[in-house]
Amino acid sequence: MACRDLVRGEAAAEEIRRSTGNGNVVVRHLDLASLFSIRTFCSEVLQTEERVDVLVNNAGVMMCPKWLTEDGFEMQLAVNHLGHFLLTNLLLPKLKSSAPSRIITVSSIAHKGGVVDVEDLFFSRRSYTPLQSYRQSKLANILFTRHLAKRLTGSGVSCFCLHPGVIRTELGRHVHSSFPLLGALLSLPALLLMKTPHEGSQTSVYCAVTPGLESKSGAYFSDCAEKNPAPEAKDDETALKLWNESCKLVGLSRD
User: Fold this and answer.
1) How far apart are the C-alpha atoms of 33 and 141, rounded to whole Å?
2) pTM assigned to the model
3) Is residue 64 part of a domain?
4) Can you name the residues that pair with 2 across neighbouring β-strands?
5) Residue 199 lies inside a defined structural domain of this protein
6) What is the pLDDT of residue 63?
7) How many domains would you assign to the chain?
8) What are phi and psi of 208, to 5 degrees?
């Protein structure tokens, strides 16, 4: 378990150990808003783990103010896309040596209406809105998965992305300050219609363990079924440009 908050991460790990009887649950620190933290985490994993069979890219921030990371990146794109991009690429050697293996990246239905502006990913020249930034980052998740699947053809590593549903978690903590009316609505009985965290994890689990999905590498899922993403999520030209720019930003070779 890769967690930014080790105290809460260890508490969750202890609950898993207790409920499953599996004591082999390890918690390690990882802050996806920090390239240094990502590189440190990956170095430890590559040195200490014999295999990486499944990588689930599940961290995220939603609709926060325009914050910058320690590396000078806009927070939502940094955490939701660039952090996972670097993490995945650094762990690819171990994923390939563990093949057949899988990479699952949690996106959102919010990718619809999103625009990935490769020339202005951090909203330096265009007006920043928390929602548009979030949509861009979630669209980036799908474009990343789509291009990664092509690069991994024949490697034995499959990759998938998904919309988990609207879930009762703390992900929406910033919605109240950015969009008071929407925040009020989310505080009403509509909360009862949201998925529980257990329900919300099912599509991730489905993509991680269901036999025979290898032929669908690069696909987008929701409610444990393949779904058709928005047209902008099928733009291979933008996917390639995003890949190249992401490599530049995090210090990776394009090859």
Assistant:
1) 16
2) 0.90
3) yes
4) 28
5) yes
6) 86
7) 1
8) -80, -35
**How do residues 161-175 score in pLDDT, each as one tens digit?**
999 866 555 555 556
CA dihedral 116, 118, 124, 129 (to 10 degrees): 0
175-215 pLDDT, tens per residue? 655 555 555 555 554 555 666 766 768 899 999 999 999 99
> Is the separation of the CB atoms in 90 and 72 below 8 Å?
no
Is residue 252 predicted with pLDDT exceeding 80?
Answer: yes
Whether the Cβ atoms of residue 110 and residue 138 lie closer than 8 Å to each other: yes
Report how far apart, in Å, the C-alpha atoms of 102 and of each of 21, 95, 98, 114, 207 are: 25, 8, 10, 26, 8
Give the neighbor-by-neighbor strand order of the sheet with 101-106.
54-57, 101-106, 157-163, 220-222, 225-227
Closest Cα partner for 100 from 154, 151, 56?
154
Find, among 164, 223, 167, the residue nearest to 191 by Cα: 167
134 an active-site residue?
Answer: yes
CATH number of the domain that residue 92 is part of: 3.40.50.720
Per the domain annotation, does 99 fall within a domain? yes
In a domain, 217, yes or no: yes
Tokens encoding 170: 């703390």
